[in-house]
Amino acid sequence: MSDRIDHLLNETRRFAPPEALAGASATSAALYERAREDRLGFWAEQARELQWATPFTEVLDWEPPHARWFHDGTLNVAVNCLDRHVEAGHGDRVALRWEGEPGDRRTLTYADMTAEVKRLANVLTSLGVRAGDRVAIYLPMLPEAVAAMLACARIGAVHTAVFGGFSPSNLRGRIDDAGATLVITTDGAWRKGKVFPLKPTVDEALREPGHGVTNVLVVRRGENEIEWTPGRDVWYHDAMAAADAEHEAEAFPAEHPLFILYTSGTTGKPKGILHTSAGYLTQTAFTHRHVFDLKPESDVYWCTADIGWVTGHSYIVYGPMANGTTQVMHEGTFDTPTPERPWQIIERYGVTVFYTAPTAIRTFMKLGRQHTQSSDLSSLRVLGTVGEPINPEAWMWYREVIGGGTTPVMDTWWQTETGAIMISGLASVTTLKPGSAQVPIPGIDIDVVDEQGEPVGDGDGGLLVVTSPWPSMLRTIWGDDDRYRETYWQKFGDRYFAGDGARKDDDGEIWLLGRVDDVMNVSGHRLSTAEIESSLVAHESTAEAAVVGASDETTGQAVVAFVILKQRFADELTVEESEAVLRKHVAAEIGAIARPRQVFIVPDLPKTRSGKIMRRLLRDLAEGRDLGDTTTLADQTVVDAIRSQLR
Ligand code: WTA
Fold first, then answer.
1. DSSP letter, residue 27
2. What pLDDT score was predicted for residue 4?
3. How remote is the CA of residue 514 from the centroid of ligand 1, in Å?
4. Cβ(79)–Cβ(260) below 8 Å
5. For residues 323 and 320, what is the distance between their CA atoms, to the nearest angstrom?
6. From ligand 1's centre to the CA of 358, what distance in Å?
7. For ligand 1, is residue 579 a contact (CB within 6 Å)?
8. Is the CB of 356 inside a 6 Å radius of any atom of ligand 1?
9. 183 and 213 Cβ atoms separated by less than 8 Å
10. Signed CA dihedral, 196, 198, 199, 202: sign only
11. Domains of the chain by range and CATH?
12. Rg value, the chain, Cα
C-alpha cells in the first residue's frame, strides 16, 4: 500500500478549531496527557462522573478476549440518564424536541421522560418482564422508542432493537436468537408522506409458533387499521394509564447486560453484539461530551441516525441522555415534504451540534446547496459524521455549506462492536484534516499492522487493530462466544481486529480505507475502494460513486465503478463520454492501475436502510451473478434501474 492512497494523502488543507471553542481546549487537551500517564486511572475518573449505587474498586479485569470493567460497582443506567438530572434541578430542561413527519411536535423535559420511563418500567414488570429477560423493540423514531430502551435498562431487561425496515423473517430471526419474550412496536409511522405499517410485520413474524413472545405492546402512532390478537396484544397508552407512576429503581452490577444489537458479519447469520452497562455508559457519555465539545446547559444536539442502529443507541439515547443533553428527534425522511426540511429543523430549534452520515451529506450535495439557503444555519457550531470514510470533497462541502465555513467537522470512526467513538479529533483541540478520522480518543490504543501483526510505520497502510481493551467494547456475541473469539481475536491474539483497512500518515494520524473486504487486489496491487471513490467524487461531474472489485481473468480483480452524475452533466454528456472522462480522470489522479475497467452511469445506488452502499450487491451485479438476499435494501427498484444500464 505504498503510493495508492496518495490521492487522499495529497490532502494538505488544515483547519484549526475556531476561536470560540478555544476556552474548552485546555481541559480537553489535558485529557490526552492524563490518559497517557495512567490509562486505567483516566477511565476510572470518567466512570466516576456517573452516579453509582456501590462504587467500584477494580477498574479492569482482562482475561483476553473477555473484559470486565468496574465490575464490583453497581448502578442503574436509566437513573443515570434521567432521574439524576431531575434530582440535580434540571427537570425542566428539554430532553427531546420531537417532530413528526407531518409536522406535529412534542416537547418532553427530563422530568417528563423520567415519569414516562417509571410508568413504563411498571408496565414491563406487570407483563412479566424480569431483569435479564430480553425485549425486542421494533419501533421507529418516536419518543416512546427512547422510553422503551430506558425502561428496559431501568428494570435490568436486555433490549434488542430491530430496525423498523426489517422484514418479518429478519425480525423473527432476531427474536428467536435473543429469546425475546416481549415485543414493543407501533401500529405504523410516517415515512415519505404515508403511514408505513409496522404491527403487521410483527404479526407475520410471530405467526409460526415456536417463539417465546407472550405479549406485544403497541404504541399508537399511525392510527392505521391493524389486526389484534386478544390476550397477547396490549395498547401502550392503556397500559400506561393503568400503571403506577412511582417506580423504585434497583441498582445492577456494572457488567449487567444492557442490550444486544444484531449486525451483519461475513456469514449470512447476523451477530448479536452484546453490550453491558457501566463501561458502555462511561465511554458513550465521555466521547459525546468531548468529541463534540457538548455543553448540556446550552447546546441543542441533533443526531440523524435511526434509533434501531448503534448510533441511535449510543448517540441519541445513552451518551446524550447521560450528559443531560437537549436534543432534536425527527420522524420520517429528510426530503419530505421538501429537501428544505432538515435545514428548517435546524433553524427552528437552533441546533448547535449536528451528527449525520457521509451518505446523507453526499445526498445533500447532490440535491444542491440552494435547499440550504432559505434557512438560517448560523446556530451550528460543531458537525459530526460517522458510518463510512468521508471523502475530502464531502467533508469540505459539509464544513462550507452547512457549517458556514467555520465549524469543525468531526469524522468519528467506530463500530457496533466498539459501542462508542474510538478515533476522532476533539472539537476544541484538534487541527482537522479533511478525510482523516485523526487520532484515537484519549484512553484508546489503536495501531495499524500488517498481515503478520507487525505495526506499520507512519506513512504506511495495513489493518486497524485496537491494542488494549476499552470500556464500551462488546463483551461477546450473544450465544456464540466461539464466533466472538474467531471473528475478532483469532487473527492477532489479544488485539482486537476491526476488519477495517487504515493508513497512518506522516504525522501518525489515521485515514480509514474501508472494510478490508472492500480492498481490491488488481494485478497484485492493493487498491482501496474508498480511494477510487474519493477520486471519482472529486471530479466535477460526479454526485456519488461506489467502487467494487469484480473478478477479472487477467488481473485477478478489476475496478468497476458505479457513478451518479450531477444533473447538469447528465444533461450535457452522453453516457459514453462520461465514462471515458471518468476513467481518464481516475487514471490521472491515482495511476493507470486504478483506472476502472468499467464505469456505469446509474440513476441511484443500492443502499441499506442505514444508508450504507451495498457493495456486495454491486459486485454481484458487476459479475452478472444472481442477487442473494436483498431485503436489507432501502429501495428495491434501484437494482432494476442499474441492471437496465448494464444490459
Ligand atoms: C465503517 C457504525 C470510516 C467502518 C458506527 C466500520 C467508518 C463500520 C467510519 C462499522 C468512519 C464507521 N470512517 N469508516 N468515520 N465510521 N465506519 O457497525 O468500516 O454500522 O467497521 O457502526 O463502518 O459500522 P457499524
1. H
2. 38
3. 8
4. no
5. 5
6. 11
7. no
8. no
9. yes
10. positive
11. 24-333+412-488 (3.40.50.12780), 519-646 (3.30.300.30)
12. 24
| Other CB atoms within 10 A of residue 27 CB | 12
Q: How far is CA 243 from CA 79, 246, 378, 397, in A?
A: 19, 9, 44, 50
The pLDDT mean for the chain works out to 91
> Which residue type is seen at 7?
H
Please name the amino acid found at residue 43. W
3-state class (DSSP) for residue 219: strand
Bridge partners (DSSP) of residue 504 are 510
Nearest residue to 542 (alpha-carbon basis) of 400, 360, 385, 393: 393
**Dihedral angle sign, alpha carbons of residues 119, 308, 326, 52:** positive
564 phi and psi, to 5 degrees?
-100, 125
Q: What CA–CA distance (Å, rounded) separates 81 from 315?
A: 12
Query: How high is the pLDDT of residue 267?
Result: 52
Q: How far is the CA of 413 from the centre of ligand 1 (A)?
A: 6
Q: Give the residues of the chain that fall short of pLDDT 70.
A: 1-9, 23, 264-269, 517-519, 521, 523-527, 556, 627-634, 646-647
Determine if ligand 1 sits within 6 Å of the CB of residue 515: yes
Is ligand 1 within 6 A of the CB of residue 609? no
3-state DSSP assignment of residue 180: strand
Gap between the Cα atoms of 371 and 181, Å rounded:
46
CA distance 232 to 211: 13
User: 84 Cβ partners below 8 Å, 6+ apart?
Assistant: 51
Identify whether the C-beta of residue 385 lies closer than 8 Å to the C-beta of residue 410: yes
pLDDT of 558: 87
Asked whether 310 and 261 are in contact (CB, 8 A), the reply is yes
How far apart CA 77 and CA 319 sit, in angstroms, is 11
Cα–Cα distance between 600 and 43 in angstroms, integer?
Answer: 49
Q: Distance from CA of residue 93 to its chain's centroid?
A: 26
Q: How far is residue 312's CA from residue 224's CA, in Å, rounded to a whole number?
A: 26
Distance (Å, whole) CA 229 – CA 203: 9
Please report the pLDDT score of residue 216 as a whole number. Answer: 98
What is the identity of the amino acid at 235? W
Closest by CA to 303, choosing from 327, 280, 326, is: 327
User: What are the CA-CA distances from residue 237 to residues 30, 216, 243, 409 (Å)?
Assistant: 48, 13, 10, 41
DSSP label of 607: B
pTM of the predicted model as reported, rounded to 2 decimal places: 0.86
Q: Which secondary-structure segment (H or E) carries 550?
A: strand 542-552
